[in-house]
Give the backbone structure.
Amino acid sequence: MRDLIKTATFAVLHFGVGFGVTFALTGSVAIATGVALIEPTVNTLVFYFHEKGWNVFWPASAAEKAVQAAAPESARAHSHGFSHIAFSPR
């Protein structure tokens, strides 16, 4: 449940930033709404192909694969490709 709430709040923040920046630049609610809805969709597709290319040109080492395999499914599903960054819990 925590992951779902975290994802939803991030989506709201992402929409808000996209809308705010576009509205500040254009002054148009319609354009800002369109950009705020379209940009995350396009960004998601670009990220997918970026990951595919990354795996072709710079495959994970055996050690990285072992760490990924040992991670819980929920962590792998929500890593957003940033598994190389270490975050320490607070």
Summary: Residues 82-87 have pLDDT under 50 and may be disordered. The radius of gyration is 17 Å. The helical segments are 2-26, 29-57, 62-70, 73-77. The CA atoms of residues 60 and 66 lie 10 Å apart.
